[in-house]
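ok so I'm stuck.
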Amino acid sequence: MYKELDNLLSADTSVDSWYDDGCVIASAMLSEFNPSDWVELSNQVHHKPIEWQRKLAYCLDNECNVNEFNILLSLLSTNDEELFEICIDTLRSFTNQEIKKMILDNPNILQRINDSLHTASLPVKKMLQDFLSKIHL
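replied:
not stuck anymore, here's the structure
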């Protein structure tokens, strides 16, 4: 299943096509991943182009499982602001107390979010604030 997802994320599509259809198909694929697919995805994600990583991060809230969380967490180390924002936006759907604690125990994530609040556009600022409020509930 990983190969099919890789092909989908690698495809050259319009933005509209990706958000209308591609992300739905990718989410469905992710819901069918087996443990070896998750291992391969985890091993390959940082070797993929930034656009591929952005597409992946956007559709990783399918089941809010620990595999998805770990990949999103690893992608937060990016220097790409858009990927960072997509990861934080996606993480808003992870409401499990254990996951919240893991985020709160990682001061680098919280510091980067707080730093981003000063320069973010209004929609991004609202998303970041929403994330912080959900984490602190």
